[in-house]
Amino acid sequence: MHKDPISILRQYWGFNSFKGSQKKIIDAIIDKQDVLALLPTGGGKSVCFQVPAMAQEGLCIVVSPLIALIQDQVESLKRKGIKAIALTGGIPFNELLDLLDNCLYGGYKFVYLSPERLQQELVQEKIRQMNVNLVAIDEAHCISQWGHDFRPAYLECAQLRKLLPQTPVIALTATATDRVADDIIESLRLTAPTVVKDSFARSNIAFKILWEQDKHYRLAQLCSQIEKSGIVYVGTRRGTVELSQFLNSKGCSATFFHGGIPKKEKEKKLNLWLTNKIRIMVATNAFGMGVDKPDVSLVVHYQIPDCLENYYQEAGRAGRDGQPAEAVLITNPNDEEQLKNQFLSVLPDTAFLKKIYNKLNNFFRIGYGEGSHETFQFNFNEFVRIYSLNSFLAYNGLKILDRNSVISLSESFSKKTLVQFISDKDTIFDYLDMHKGSANIIQTILRTYGGIFDFETKIDPSLVAKKTNTSEQHIFKVLEQMKKDDIITFEAHQSDLEITFLVPREDDLTINVFAKKVKEQNQVKTEKVFQMIDYVKNTTICRSKQILEYFGEKDTADCGKCDVCLSKGIIQKPTFDQVSKEISSLLLESPYTSRAIIRAMTYKEPIVLRALQLMLEDGDITINTKNEYTLK
Asked: Is 247 in contact with 282 (CB distance < 8 Å)?
C-alpha cells in the first residue's frame, strides 16, 4: 500500500510542496518506471528517491561514490528517524554478514553501498533476497567513460539490474552532457526511462572570471566583503593551509579542509563553518558534496578546474537559499600552463602503457606467457626510480592497467607518507646532539623538503634511504621514534603494496586490446581541459549562457550579472560621464592606483575599471612609472 508522497515530504522534510520536477520523478518511480534525473546542484536530488522509497513497502538501495557523502546522507536520515545503513569498505566479513542480515530483517528503508561492494558475491546474494522497491544510482555520471569523473567500479552498478530485474532504477546527476546522459542509460540498461531535465540555470549566481596578477589581494578583498559564508577551492592540501592562514592574517575568519585531516578534526572544522563561527572554508575540490549549507554567498576557485562539469558543480554550492551569490574564478596567464601540466602532461598514451607494462613484468621477472594471478609485494617508489619514470605518469599508467583488468593494485596504493616538524629549531639541534645515529637522516629530510616546519609534507622514504645509504625500514624506525619524542607528526603508509597480475604476459598484445579506448578517453580529458580554458578566456558570451550551452541548453538569455554582461552594459547605469567626472575630480588631488580609486568611489569595481579603460583609450588619463593614474 502506497503512502502519500506529499505527506511524507511534510512529515520528514518539513516542506509543503515539491520543487522543480521532483513530483514528476516521484510519480514515475511509484509507477515502476526507470528514471534519468538531470537536476542542477541544489535541485533536491536526494528527495527524488528518498520520498518514493518511503512511500512504498520495502527498502531502497543507493549507490554513491564517496564514503563521506554516504555517511552524511545516512546520518541525515537517522536524524529524521528513518532507518538507514552504510555498507562501505573496511568492514570485516563477520560484521558485514550481520549488517546484511539486518538489512533483510531489521526494518531498514535505505541501504547505501559503495560501488566496490557490488563486486562481492555475498552482497549480491543478499541483495537477491531483499525486498527492494527502488535502486538509486547517485552521481551517475561516474559510470560514463565520457564523463568527467569516470570510475570503473561504477560499471558494477549494472549488476543490480540483473539481481533485481523488476525493480525500477533511478540515475541522478547534476553534471551530464547529452553524450554522458546517453551513456548512463546504456550502461545501466535503463528500460524506456523517463528522462527529466530541469534547467541547469542558477539565476541567482553571478559567474565571474577575474584576471589578477596579485591573486592574494583579490581573494582577501572578496572574502572581506561577504556577510554570510564562503568556500575557496584550491588544488592542493598545502594550498588550503596557506590560503586560510593568509585570510586570517587579513582579518577574514577562515579554516582549511582536505582529505588528510583526522576525522574528529574534520568534524570540528565543518561544524564551525556550518554554524558560521568560521566564515570561509578553504578546501580541496571534494569538499561540499552532501553538505547542506544553503547560505553560501561566495564560492571562489583559486585555480582553474580541469573541466566545466567540476567547475559548475563546485560553483553551484553557492546560493542554494535562492539569495544572490557569486561564483568567482581568480586567474592569471600562468594558470593555463599549470592546468595543462597538472592534467595533460601526465596522461599516459599507448606507447607509455606498453613501456610501463614491459618494465613491470621485468621488475618482477615474469616470462612471456606467464604471471597470470600471481601476487607480489610492490614498492612503487623503487620501481619508478629504477626505470627513471615520472611518478605521476607512472601512477596514472598503473591505474589504467588496473582499470582494464591487466593488474590489480591494492587500495592503499595512492596513499602517502606525511611528515611535519612541530618543535622549534633549538629543540631540534638538542635532539640531533642526543641522537647522533639519526642526525644524518634528520638533516637529509630537512634539506630535501622545504616548508616541512609549516605543513604536513609528503616525503619519499626510499629517496631518503638512498641519500643516507640506509634501508627504508630504518627510515621508518627513525620517524616513529621522532613522533614518540614529539619532534614531528608522522602519518605512515606502507610503501610495499600488493600487485596481482590478472592475465598472462603478452607485452604489446595485452595493451592493444584496449588501446583505442585509452586514446579516446585521453582525447575526452584533453577536450575538457581546453573547453574549460575557452570558457575562462571567452569575454564575449555571457558566462551563464556558456555553461548552459555546454550542457545542451540553447537560446538562453544573458544573465546580466556576470563579468561579461557587466562589461557590455557598463556605461548604461551609471553613465560613463558620471563615473569619468568623479575619477577626474579624484585625480585632480593626486595620482592614484586603480585599487585606491576603487576604494574611494561608491561604484562597483567593474564599472570603475571599465571607465578607466575608456578614459585611457580617449587620452584623458595616463599611467605613470609608479603604476598610478594621472590626468593629462
From this structure: yes
Chain-centre distance of CA 136, in angstroms? 21
- Report the C-alpha gap between 514 and 532 in whole angstroms: 27
CATH topology of domain 569-631: Arc Repressor Mutant, subunit A (1.10.10)
Tell me the pairing of strands 407-409 and 194-197.
unpaired
User: What are the structural domain ranges in the chain?
Assistant: 5-197, 205-340, 350-414+497-524, 417-492, 569-631
> How many whole angstroms separate alpha carbon 381 and alpha carbon 463?
8
The domain covering 5-197 belongs, at the CATH homologous superfamily level, to: P-loop containing nucleotide triphosphate hydrolases (3.40.50.300)
Count other C-beta atoms under 10 Å from residue 44's C-beta. 20
Task: Please state, in angstroms and rounded to a whole number, the distance separating the CA atoms of residues 261 and 281.
Answer: 14
Cβ-contact 303, 282 below 8 angstroms: no
Angle at 614 between CA 611 and CA 619, to 5 degrees: 125
Computed on alpha carbons and rounded to an integer, the radius of gyration of the chain in Å comes to: 28
Whole-angstrom distance, CA of residue 229 vs CA of residue 222: 11
Q: What is the pTM of this model?
A: 0.74
Q: Residue 518: exposed, middle, or buried by beta-carbon count in 10 A (0-12, 13-18, 19+)?
A: buried
Residue with cell 578583498: 221
Q: What is the per-residue pLDDT across 591-625, written as a single tens digit (0 to 9) for each? A: 888 888 887 777 777 788 888 888 887 888 988 88
17 Cβ contact partners less than 8 Å away, ≥ 6 residues apart: 6, 9
Q: Which fold has domain 350-414+497-524?
A: Arc Repressor Mutant, subunit A (1.10.10)
H/E element holding 420?
Answer: strand 417-421
What angle separates helix 515-537 from helix 333-343, to the nearest 10 degrees? 170
Does 205-340 carry CATH code 3.40.50.300? yes
Give the 3-state DSSP-derived string for 512-574, with helices as H, strands as E and coil as C: HCCHHHHHHHHHHHHHHHHHHHHHHHCCCCCHHHHHHHHCCCCCCCCCCCCHHHHHHCCCCCC
Query: Is a pLDDT exceeding 90 seen at residue 577?
Result: no
584 with 631: CB under 8 angstroms?
yes
Look at residue 47 in the predicted model and tell me its pLDDT. 93
What is the pLDDT at residue 192? 93
Cell reading at 82:
528513518
CA distance 135 to 5: 18
